């Protein structure tokens, strides 16, 4: 079986999921290949050229409308002799929409990576055209089944997972008392979802010996540096980090700080726990609670509670034995429940089941009638001021 996974190689969680899933599905006789598009002449991002061996890059005229890209994507899918496709909802709007137009004999699997109203609206639009839906967290499945009427028998939870072996060679030396704790933020530098603009307030409340490394890139990096400059004491901006360098980076830090407003199930969190980097994360119902057992293998705080974060870190700074216990328990949690082997086996079972007995889905739409449905267009929430949206997101999680 050969499956196209809609994603463009990049330094980020969605592509890390692809890489792990590709390796995990191979023993099941399933070949997973990435499929993505870029404007003509752009090519893959520097440093990712070797990923071309695992997928197909579709070049599209940058000035043409969605239909041109959609037709070229369809042509690449048919030319690749794929048996099915995996669409990551809202990773790209054209690729999300195209599942409504593909030939009827192609298997379609939808993966929902986030819990936002916009993500759910997009998923609802294409649900009649997919054979099965995978949610990366329990919260996501509960929302889709209970509130958006997704068929329960065709909606599953498969958590993102990591390749344990990639982290086995990383040594974690205990931090001596007297030396400050090393905190790490790793991910997209974006305030709306990741809450990065809370980081300066958190750091100012910590002991002077604590340091904070910020690894990644994103649209709010400039804003973050404006309030917490690169030359500020105790702050290190590490920039984007290649996947193969992540285990060593995590091993050099004591605490993984995740002040997010909303998530699906972030790969960086699973990776941090695998490396024994103790997670201190926002309490997001059905998401972070799904992997972190508060007080046992990590610590949770209410969304936006910067005072609470500082209190947690200060307590761990004074109790290194507890820090070590949480570190060991975090790694055991991943080894027991979040392995690539388990993730791949679950995906393989769904793909095999759908191939053997495909459930009825809506007939494909004609490509000549291509249009972007309402659920894939910007809604009214898009135009709300950022502070208002952020306030509403915080309230949503606290209620």
From TrEMBL:
Keywords: Plasmid
SUPFAM superfamilies attached to this UniProt entry: UDP-Glycosyltransferase/glycogen phosphorylase
Keyword rRNA-binding attached: no
Pfam annotation, one family: Glyco_trans_1_4
Iron-sulfur recorded as keyword: no
Gene3D superfamilies: Glycogen Phosphorylase B (3.40.50.2000)
Protein name: Glycosyltransferase family 4 protein
């Amino acid at each position: 079986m050969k499956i196209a996974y809609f994603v463009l190689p990049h330094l980020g969680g969605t592509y890390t999921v692809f890489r792990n899933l590709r390796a995990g599905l191979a023993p099941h006789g399933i070949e997973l290949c990435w499929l993505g598009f870029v404007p003509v002449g752009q090519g893959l991002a520097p440093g990712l050229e070797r990923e071309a061996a695992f997928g197909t890059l579709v070049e599209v005229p940058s000035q043409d409308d969605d239909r041109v890209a959609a037709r070229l994507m369809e042509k690449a899918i048919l030319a690749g002799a794929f048996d099915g496709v995996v669409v990551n909802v809202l990773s790209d709007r054209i690729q999300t929409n195209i599942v409504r137009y593909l030939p009827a004999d192609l298997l379609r699997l939808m993966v929902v990576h986030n819990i936002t109203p916009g993500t759910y609206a997009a998923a609802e639009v294409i649900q009649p055209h997919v054979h099965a839906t995978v949610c990366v967290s329990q919260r996501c499945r509960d929302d889709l089944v209970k509130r958006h009427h997704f068929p329960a028998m065709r909606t599953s939870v498969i958590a993102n997972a990591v390749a344990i072996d990639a982290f086995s060679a990383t040594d974690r030396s205990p931090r001596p008392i007297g030396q400050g704790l090393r905190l790490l933020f790793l991910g997209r530098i974006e305030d709306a979802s990741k809450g990065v603009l809370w980081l300066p307030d958190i750091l100012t409340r910590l002991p002077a010996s604590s340091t904070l490394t910020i690894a990644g890139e994103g649209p709010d990096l400039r804003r973050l540096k404006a309030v917490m400059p690169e030359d500020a004491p105790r702050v290190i901006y590490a920039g984007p980090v290649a996947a193969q360098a992540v285990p060593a980076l995590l091993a050099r830090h004591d605490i993984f700080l995740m002040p997010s407003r909303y998530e699906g199930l972030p790969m960086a969190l699973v990776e941090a726990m695998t490396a024994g980097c103790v997670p201190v994360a926002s309490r997001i119902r059905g998401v972070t609670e799904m992997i972190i057992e508060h007080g046992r293998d990590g610590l949770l705080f209410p969304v936006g509670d910067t005072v609470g974060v500082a209190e947690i870190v200060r307590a761990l700074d004074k109790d290194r034995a507890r820090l070590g216990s949480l570190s060991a328990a975090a790694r055991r949690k991943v080894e027991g429940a979040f392995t690539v082997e388990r993730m791949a086996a679950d995906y393989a079972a769904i793909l095999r089941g759908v191939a053997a007995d495909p459930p009825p889905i809506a007939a494909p739409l004609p490509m000549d009638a291509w249009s972007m449905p309402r659920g894939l267009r910007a809604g009214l929430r898009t135009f709300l001021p950022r502070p208002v949206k952020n306030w509403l997101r915080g309230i949503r999680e606290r209620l």
